[in-house]
Amino acid sequence: MQAILETFQKVVIQIATPYGAGTGFYLADFELIVTNYHVVAGCRQVAISGKYLKKSLAEVVFINVGKDLAFIKMPEETRYDFPKVELAHKNVQDGDTITAIGHPYGLSFTATRGIVSKAKRLYKNTYYIQLDAAINPGNSGGPLVNEAGEIVGVNTFILSEGKDLGFALHAQYLKEDLEEFVKLERKESLRCPSCANMVVEATLTNDYCPHCGTALTRLSQEDFQPTGVAKIIEDLLYELGKNAVLARVGANRWEIVEGSAKIFLHYQPETGYIFADSQLCSLPKSNISDIYSYLLHENYQLQGLRFSVHEQDVVLSMALFAQYLEPASARKQLYYLIKKSDEYDNILVQDYGASWRESEVF
Hints:
Elements: H1 2-11, E1 12-16, E2 21-27, E3 32-35, H2 37-40, E4 45-50, E5 53-64, E6 69-73, E7 97-102, E8 110-123, E9 126-131, E10 143-146, E11 151-158, E12 166-170, H3 171-183, E13 189-191, E14 198-200, H4 228-239, H5 244-247, E15 248-250, E16 253-258, E17 261-268, E18 273-282, H6 288-301, E19 306-310, E20 313-321, H7 327-352, E21 355-356
Parallel strand pairs: 5-13
Antiparallel strand pairs: 1-2, 1-4, 2-3, 3-6, 4-5, 5-6, 7-8, 7-10, 8-9, 9-12, 10-11, 11-12, 13-14, 15-16, 16-17, 17-18, 18-20, 18-21, 19-20
Helix pairs in contact: 4-7
């Protein structure tokens, strides 16, 4: 099983949108990333990243709202020699051992083993695989894998009132969409939830299915446009030379990389505050009093920034009250945090024996 998981580490994709985060997986035979529709809903572009995939923007090219499926086109410039993973040739059976793979809660690669509780559970006119392996927020769109390393389903949802009661869409539905998408020459398209016909987006003259007249959820026609405080924050990021779209990691959340530092921004509408935290390094096991003295001394010198220690992590933080946000001063303060973060982690490691924080790998 370890060899199988090592393969899937290379093809499982983390997906971030302005609304949240989820999982996808790359099928080399189709040159597409598969995920759930609800992961990419309302987005024309999404940010993708993976073990060997630098964070980049990718286009949503197909949606099936009825089966909660979506395809994302892998950007040409980010492709490498992905290993091939296959869809299963036969359905799972009750009691089979399976593994749910994904990025729960925005964390990196996680695999959870379990068994198939019911191989064909009919729910809202669709057959799902019911499983006892934990499927958490962020797992959506990830592959469900059998012991042979074949994809038997797409992790889709849980029942909130049921503990460890997860459901995955049967791979047969995915196979049908893939084959028909290829027959349409990979044109941007969608499947009607009523008559189940595939419709090429460019042929639509209105929002209704040309076959049955049902109202359609179309591919998003425009990229997400932030408003209010989120727009101010993204404008500031662009002014500082950062790609705000790539920095998005969820609703009102951004992640910025500067040298060896990683800064997390979070706007909380309920409190009105913008918080920025940079987790710099881990405390050393010896001479801790020296590093504490240095941090306290720097806190007296810093303007609008504060060092703190959370468990083993040394954190450099900033808080701004959005109601009194003045773009010029906020830009200066954010620039100050970004530059100081990249400086301080080097100082703390090289001069005070702190340890580099371990980067989570896929």
